[in-house]
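TA notes, week 10

Several of you asked for a full example with nothing omitted. So below is the full record: structure tokens for the whole chain, then the designed sequence directly under it. When grading your own attempts, check the secondary structure regions first.
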């Protein structure tokens, strides 16, 4: 793969990861700008290496992709904290997971798919908290304290 194509894919991954990271920074959540950028770029790079290895050496590109998913699952699990009856960090773990998938899509050159997933992710992170708060107020309970 030409170097310019590799750089373009990595830059797209970094930009999309930055968009998600900025939203997390704005809300003062763990795994902010740098973390999300690095997750997206790392996933894209592993994907690019995987594709190059498979085409150049007769290997299988899906083996490294599967390991990205496993490794990201490990990182996400590390962000989840349980304290008696409440759980915190589920959204952060899910954000890390989807951000890695976005990086993988950018790494394959599927920029539309990566951008679409980023847009949907940002909509979920930005739009749904007020909707959740509305339903919590309406029900007179706080689900958020039990499911974070």
């Amino acid at each position: 793969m030409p170097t310019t194509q590799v750089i373009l894919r990595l830059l797209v991954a970094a930009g999309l990861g930055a968009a998600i990271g900025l939203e997390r920074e704005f809300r003062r959540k763990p795994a902010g700008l740098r973390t999300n950028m690095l997750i997206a770029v790392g996933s894209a790079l592993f994907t690019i290496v995987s594709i190059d290895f498979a085409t150049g050496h007769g290997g299988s590109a899906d083996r490294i992709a599967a390991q990205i998913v496993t490794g990201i699952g490990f990182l996400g699990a590390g962000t989840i904290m349980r304290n008696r009856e409440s759980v915190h960090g589920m959204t952060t773990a899910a954000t890390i997971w989807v951000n890695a998938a976005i990086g993988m899509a950018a790494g394959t050159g599927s920029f539309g798919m990566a951008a679409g997933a980023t847009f949907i992710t940002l909509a979920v992170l930005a739009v749904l908290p007020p909707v959740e708060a509305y339903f919590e107020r309406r029900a007179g309970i706080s689900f958020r304290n039990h499911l974070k």
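The chain has six helices and two strands. Use that as a sanity check on your answer.
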